[in-house]
User: What shape does this take?
Amino acid sequence: MPITKSELVRQLSKTYPNLLKKDLEKFFDIFINEIKFALKNDERVELRGWGVFSTKNHKAKTSRNPKTGEKVIVKEKKSINFKMSKDLFIEINNE
Assistant: This one.
């Protein structure tokens, strides 16, 4: 079952009852937007004990539509890479 933003905020509000839910939502939005902004500007985002987010540029290329066989030009684009930290790997795998 996936964890949604509202579920994360609910869990945070249980852990920190002295903070308002709307403040926690605002903090969460700012946190995510800062990560998006950094990735958009080709910066690397490192969260110690969690992992590293980075972007990879894919060059424009000519490809084929498998259904019709016609050539299609695919524009240049970016993708996001995530490499988890060793600590997170150990915690997930219970080593």
